[in-house]
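Repro case for the chain-ordering regression, as requested:
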Amino acid sequence: MTLAAGRPYLAIPGPSVIPDRVLRAMHRGSPNIYEGPLIELVAGLMPDLRLVAGTTGHVAIYIGNGHAGWEAANANLFNRGDRALVLAVGQFGLSWANSARAMGVEVEVMDFGKSSPVDMGRVEAALRADTGHRIKAVLTTQVDTASSIKTDIPSLRAAMDAAGHPALLAVDCIASLGCDEFRMDDWGVDVMVSACQKGLMTPPGLAFVWFSEAARLRCGRSDLATPYWAWGPRAEPEEFWQLWDGTAPTSHLYGLREALDMIAEEGLPQVWARHHTLARTVWAAFDAWGAGNPAIAMNVADPAHRGWSVTAARLGAPHATRLRDWCEKQAGVTLGIGLGMAPSTDPAYHGFLRVGHMGHVNAHMTLGALAVMEAGMIALDIPHGEGALSAAVRVIGTGA
Amino acid sequence: MTLAAGRPYLAIPGPSVIPDRVLRAMHRGSPNIYEGPLIELVAGLMPDLRLVAGTTGHVAIYIGNGHAGWEAANANLFNRGDRALVLAVGQFGLSWANSARAMGVEVEVMDFGKSSPVDMGRVEAALRADTGHRIKAVLTTQVDTASSIKTDIPSLRAAMDAAGHPALLAVDCIASLGCDEFRMDDWGVDVMVSACQKGLMTPPGLAFVWFSEAARLRCGRSDLATPYWAWGPRAEPEEFWQLWDGTAPTSHLYGLREALDMIAEEGLPQVWARHHTLARTVWAAFDAWGAGNPAIAMNVADPAHRGWSVTAARLGAPHATRLRDWCEKQAGVTLGIGLGMAPSTDPAYHGFLRVGHMGHVNAHMTLGALAVMEAGMIALDIPHGEGALSAAVRVIGTGA
Amino acid sequence: MTLAAGRPYLAIPGPSVIPDRVLRAMHRGSPNIYEGPLIELVAGLMPDLRLVAGTTGHVAIYIGNGHAGWEAANANLFNRGDRALVLAVGQFGLSWANSARAMGVEVEVMDFGKSSPVDMGRVEAALRADTGHRIKAVLTTQVDTASSIKTDIPSLRAAMDAAGHPALLAVDCIASLGCDEFRMDDWGVDVMVSACQKGLMTPPGLAFVWFSEAARLRCGRSDLATPYWAWGPRAEPEEFWQLWDGTAPTSHLYGLREALDMIAEEGLPQVWARHHTLARTVWAAFDAWGAGNPAIAMNVADPAHRGWSVTAARLGAPHATRLRDWCEKQAGVTLGIGLGMAPSTDPAYHGFLRVGHMGHVNAHMTLGALAVMEAGMIALDIPHGEGALSAAVRVIGTGA
Amino acid sequence: MTLAAGRPYLAIPGPSVIPDRVLRAMHRGSPNIYEGPLIELVAGLMPDLRLVAGTTGHVAIYIGNGHAGWEAANANLFNRGDRALVLAVGQFGLSWANSARAMGVEVEVMDFGKSSPVDMGRVEAALRADTGHRIKAVLTTQVDTASSIKTDIPSLRAAMDAAGHPALLAVDCIASLGCDEFRMDDWGVDVMVSACQKGLMTPPGLAFVWFSEAARLRCGRSDLATPYWAWGPRAEPEEFWQLWDGTAPTSHLYGLREALDMIAEEGLPQVWARHHTLARTVWAAFDAWGAGNPAIAMNVADPAHRGWSVTAARLGAPHATRLRDWCEKQAGVTLGIGLGMAPSTDPAYHGFLRVGHMGHVNAHMTLGALAVMEAGMIALDIPHGEGALSAAVRVIGTGA
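-- result from build under test --
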């Protein structure tokens, strides 16, 4: 027998659950792309995209995924041969570094491992050591989707300032925008990259690059900025088609409009608070499961360094894979695979998983996922500490 | 702050959660109603509707809700002035009785209260006492949606047989079809009424009356059988329009087709087993909440007499209403109101609620609802026993 | 080769084309049926339903189709044995008569044939002859969907008034509401029946009965008014469930809300004018096809007596059936079958068809259907007059 | 009054009408992206994408629009400084040239104007003149969406062969794939670029590059091939994510799957034949409107050089713009703007329009659009020849 029939819940760190409202908004034939409602809809998107990023700067929309967003940022930030400093705390900083390197950027990676946050002292030292100011930009993730490590962006800005280094600060918020608090202008971020399929609750297909006026002036016209990647015409188009360098992503625009409306209706600070509480709910459960049972542990020890949208954890191989299978096939919950902790060809790979709690997620979804995980541990005889659900429920019930 | 943003879960005893597949199937323009695919689709529905009811008999489809189903059954079962024996164990037997009475049927109600099952001995005695066989049919609910009491249909059939009474047995399976085990032919049921919006996972709008060949012959042409209610042409139409006495419910037919496919794919016995296990999960939680805390209790003490699709419970006024409000507004779960236990104008009304676990429901949805309820009890300081979620999770994890 | 791939156009006289907006609105999970947005939505429907009927009276909504609407009207209008005068000009007056008769009403039918309008003089005479005022109500169609004959309701009212007869006037606007001009109060109509699947652009599933306060008082509590049909609680419910005598048709309510919004946005007089112009477009084409070619002719000779939502026509057997087949399979247009002109078992049956132009229909859809019909006549060597499309286009282009 | 209420018809040359089936397929929540049905769906897409292009070669899918497709092709075809020969017959060859030039390719454009086809003799001569074989590839459009000129690809291949030039042949089929006959392998095409939003009937968001094994070997690893554009991993991925260089475009994959199913059900040769006939229908109307009235004329005089998916035409300023406005606002048909014939700031701009007849289009849609255009000409007093609709209908009815 399986108890999975019913609405499946996808608790992976993206693509996230698409709200019914967004799906309904996208269920729409092709519109007039020359004039009328679509043009007005797009005009309204821009201020709302700025709002969600906390900036009065520019935003360029790309038909693409997160990797496209990196490439777009790279293409505008750098000329061939420019130097980048990449801060890696998991998988995706490394991937961004690879993207830049393959495009002809000279990349220096500071790798802080898979479970530790960025060491701001080392960053500051590295920047001070770059006396020739060869480093044009520092690239980092706010939340690394693989490790779930959160980088403290204001501290990073402070370190850069302390070093007196003029490098631009470019942040990947793909896994965190619309989940974790982020304030581009207040925090002195020059360039920010994100995509629509996580906190922005829209099916994969759009990437975004926000950039400050200062960044625009500093970057000028890069020799990497091909017509598709150049951010200028997209952010300040003379004609509508330049927003997308060609045909508009009509269906996604309807979806994004609805998703941004939902965020506005709830209120961005409330969206962040919801993610924070739900994250703490998940953490409380893992703390209990791992108490007296060190085989189970979250990847990031210190809650201050954990992202609010995804929790990477270790269960010991092959338990994580077995539990993922059970939850999907027996109970209707799909959890994320472990990523970057061990190669997928390695037995150790089966010891990691990730719980997504991003975007269109509420107490019911999260508590249900945790309860299903515990049921699976029982079904599969995976040793685990007691009291996880009581602890989780207490976070929801008391807010503490 | 609210933690309700995200997918809402409607845990009421109907209308139940409509599967995305069903909604998608219904998102379809009007078809050719004279020939082609729609006609073929309808031809395929009939055997599947028989299968889900466990009968080789007839089935008539009505555009209507459950009340329409009662009226349709009444109109065919009875002539004006005929006598019915109604067995009531909650709200809906009484409502069916009212319907029959208003149509001119002479109705005798045996009311077993709100929390006790049908006493088969009393039924047998009543039938024996009807030496003139004036009672033409015995009407009862398999599961009363208000009280969640299940009537043991095979025992009822046995009591009728023991009494040697020729009355027809008519059962309302509105709240139970596609949830609780039901075998119309094996159990000797003559007429069965149901609707599409609960176990059949389709938006409200269709009612069904299944009837055996014997019932058809016994009932003949009732003087209550108006064109809309007469089951003959609907079950054995000469022309397509007679199936619906007019225009076909095109949109609902697409939905019903998809829902019946889903049941067939899962397998009806597995569907029943899933509902049984999920019901036991809910019961385990209530047992724990009520342990040492008699204010909280399920309405039906004996699990053998509880339906598998809905659980009515008492929390003490005004706790039930407060908890319902909290779950919906703070956590995304809508629970059912108490029905028939106290008038809605009475303070005691706020002491009851119902949890629906019918149709498109899985371990994640059910466990999440229970966890949310416990979070709400904590938030609202509603005294409750410990260990409910552990107990619930154990049912899922062990099947025991 | 077929040229039918592409969006099919259903040009039958109902169910009509469902607007994408309506389908999208219906693509929605089950809501809380106890409180919240659904309750508010329903409150807003009532004034808009009155508006579309042109009345300040009552409206009862039924889960059902048009036949259910007749039965509902009959059940409230009549007591068993009451007398009705039915004016028949095609198929559906006769069907309504049959419905009433089967329910126990004594029905007198005045049948004006299939192609001639109601003769008001004969009606007045009949009413005058009923000196005992045994006739409780006069029943008629505004537009008979089969014959496409329109009955002049103000003239009928005048005839009844001239006769000084107190009978209630009950009109079936199933095929005309939201298409042809109709003003219930201004025209002295006491009871009006309609359904949602034609001019109201919603999938089949809802019927409506509007009734004046005078009708309510005159009818009192009929002995035919079973709980499902009684209009009182539906029009003036004490509790929400009484609006539907049970479970609400949630999905249809969302659809109807959207459809009424669309009518309000366009403006009811403009909706009528659009139907009138599109009807004249169809008529212009038929006039041309039939010029010098008497085998092709519209069923109703005088435009003043033609409905604005459907046009019945004769092409000669078997041309109509062949043309219908060709249009659907080769060009993507489904036309309506002829109805009531000849039995479907008679060869003559294949000589009739109907073009629907009701509800969500515009110049493109109508002109395209006419052009496809002419292409089919060419393909099938069906003799026809020239210039039909030029004539049709001229109606659209000049409005004349 | 407006006669536009009803289903709007978007007759622009892309994005084209999205079939309801495709929209329904896309109305689906996010799936498991690690394993299960999505992975299988994608595996099935590849052979069908090859089939529609007529190749056994490779195909790379990009999240992007047509411009992204050009950039992807350029990035793999060329190293910085390589030389391209671009054949321009309207707007989009020039745009592709601009894209290549901006990426660092040395581009030679042969511009044949806006209304004349490629002169194969001149191409052959140019290639012969390139004795050093500096030209690495010849780029051209099969159908230029702006001018609607079709390039005869087999003749172009013959010219290249006659010149004995080793340049690769790269063709943009954005406006023609799934509309006009195209046989990549048979015609000796090395690289082909297309996108999903025209003949492939899916909302904008996917671009495709097909390439032969020979092209793959010739191109090797270009220094322009950034990670996002490199076709190797996309066409021959080791892991699923490499197909998209990151997150999969889940929603679009469901849509594309359905669209390819529709093409397979109809049969690709039949799809081409349908487009050809519908194109001839449009041409017949324009021929009649323009007869004796030279202000109205199609842009391409010779039908052999006209694409089957779009027809560009001249009506004289400001008639084209006025007619477009009237058709949309009064009759529900949106026509395409003229593109590339005159700057949008020039009064002459208002003299051109385009009719799209691509993808999900049938006789009803096309004939309806033509009839609406004629109605508009009448309404706006735009002089035009007689008999256009009769001529158009004759094409459909006789196939001739």
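Ordering looks correct now. The longest helix of chain D spans residues 268-290.
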